[in-house]
Amino acid sequence: MDLSVNGRVLTGTWAEQTQAGGRYRGAVYTGAIQLIEDDNPDPRCFAGKWAGFGKDGETNTGPWSLTLVDEHVSEQAVALWNREPE
Length: 86
What we know:
This protein is mainly β and 86 residues long. It has one helix spanning 75-81, and strands spanning 2-6, 9-17, 28-37, 45-53, 59-67. It is flat and about 40 Å long.
């Protein structure tokens, strides 16, 4: 994800590379995303929508949310979350 902030709004792009041996054979999908910060500051959450093209050129959309898990950006926090998805 590459996001910019304008007040309570996050706007940006996302990219996903699928598994080489999976249904989509390693295809890379990209799209746009826009989220707004929830009024509840604890925990800090953003919710909104994503949009992107599917494998047949159709336009897909759906919900997306981000929740602050840890506000500390120590080396340990980066090591904990900087990993390949499971």
